[in-house]
Specification:
- The protein has a four-stranded antiparallel β-sheet, with no helix packed on it.
- By secondary structure, the protein is mostly beta strands.
- It is 7% helix and 42% strand.
- The protein starts with a helix and ends in a 10-residue tail after the last strand.
- It has one helix and 23 strands.
- The protein has one domain: Tachylectin-2, Chain A (5 Propeller).
- A hairpin with a 2-residue loop joins strand 2 and strand 3.
- The protein binds beta-D-galactopyranose.
- The site of beta-D-galactopyranose has 8 residues, from strand 6 and strand 14.
């Protein structure tokens, strides 16, 4: 009898040890088993420059919020982006880069652990709906309007069936609005900023310190020329105005990300080579409408010639602190878009007004303030 009890005790201890070992290995990484309820981590894992690291939410599901951004509201961070599909890139483009879901949202208090909040702008199955799936809502960006208390969303609109084009409805600026960041967003429509002409490609939004907001986009004119343009938005951020400028030095550049630091506007861009990574280039200006000048490549070391196999998406500050700026990049996976990898890096502003983001396989938030050179 005593012998049997000891044996049971030994089995129980052995089981407990096995369980703890299993749990602790889960807690130290984003790469966790499916259906595990709580994904706790306290480190950003980018992996090696050829690696696709899995970032998972509180349900253990892959975070499916691509080419989007982060917005902070009442002490909570919200990560939004396009829900992609587990398909390969294909010629007709009706593939993993198109969406049948829409724009998704996740929330976090600490930027490490993300809770799935749902779809904030849905695609539709209705053939008459402008958001009929499959389609694309590429590079969605959300800003908050202090006057109207509304959240405003702009994106690169590519209507059903989600094939990039030049015609109206295949390369426009899509706009939606909501009372709460958690949505639902109401679709307002799509248009072409600047004289109602020029195809809209990659884009972003920027709110300046005086609350004026801007839509920055790759504009393709009928003669085939492509250049980044910047257009001022109306006070409610829902429409574009006729105040705009062409960023002449940013000819054939895309994936724009705007960062303002100590009175300087920085514009991070990629070259135009589809999903294939290329060298990033930074521009700077002292006024948002320009003159812009070239700063150079923000990457250093291995992989600098291809932005560490990524493309820029968005930048945000930790609790509004401009000295703690994080750039969000994405390592696109054309074999399976659900397996794209998120790469977040701390931004370094140098004394001679350069902007850099050296690669880190992994890093913690508390290391960011020591990043200044
Ligand atoms: C990339 C662009 C993406 C997407 C892709 C499609 O260059 O940055 O947003 O449009 O091309 O090929």
């Amino acid at each position: 009898m005593i012998h049997l009890q000891n044996e049971n005790l030994l089995i129980a201890i052995f089981r407990y040890l096995l369980k703890s070992l299993f749990l602790s290995s889960l807690l130290t990484t984003h790469c966790v088993a499916r259906n595990f309820e709580k994904v706790d981590t306290s480190i950003f894992k980018n992996g090696g420059i050829n690696e696709f690291v899995e970032w998972r939410d509180n349900r253990g599901e892959l975070i499916n919020a691509h080419d989007g951004g982060i917005i902070e509201s009442n002490g909570t961070y919200y990560w939004y982006g396009l829900a992609l599909r587990p398909l390969k890139v294909s010629k007709d483009e009706n593939n993993g880069a198109a969406t049948t879901t829409g724009i998704t949202l996740y929330s976090s208090k600490n930027l490490y652990n993300w809770k799935y909040e749902g779809v904030i702008l849905s695609t539709s199955t209705d053939t008459a709906n402008p958001l009929r799936a499959p389609m694309r809502m590429e590079r969605p960006k959300i800003i908050y309007n202090e006057k109207t208390h509304k959240y405003v969303l702009w994106f690169h609109y590519v209507g059903y069936p989600g094939k990039h084009g030049e015609a109206i409805g295949t390369a426009d600026a899509g706009v939606a609005v909501a009372d709460k960041i958690t949505g639902p967003f109401t679709y307002i429509g799509h248009h072409r900023p600047i004289n109602d002409s020029g195809a809209v490609k990659d884009c972003t939004l920027f709110v300046d310190t005086d609350a004026s907001a801007y839509f920055i986009f790759d504009r393709k004119e009928t003669n085939g020329s492509r250049c980044l343009h910047i257009v001022k938005l109306t006070d409610d951020y829902l429409h574009s105005t006729n105040k705009w400028s062409k960023i002449e030095v940013a000819n054939r550049r895309e994936a724009p990300v705007v960062i303002k630091h100590e009175g300087i506007y920085y514009l991070v861009t990629s070259d135009v080579s589809g999903w294939k990574s290329n060298a990033a280039k930074v521009y700077k200006a002292t006024t948002i409408m320009g003159q812009w000048e070239i700063v150079g490549n923000p990457c250093e070391g291995e992989g600098a010639e291809a932005t560490y196999n990524t493309q820029g998406t968005n930048a945000f500050c930790v609790h509004g602190d401009k000295n703690q700026t994080i750039i969000m990049l994405e390592r696109h996976n054309t074999e399976n878009f659900m397996r794209c990898s998120y790469v977040w890096l701390p931004v370094v502003f140098t004394a001679n007004k350069q902007l850099l983001f050296p690669y880190k396989k992994e890093w913690e938030l508390n290391s960011i303030v020591t990043q200044k050179k």
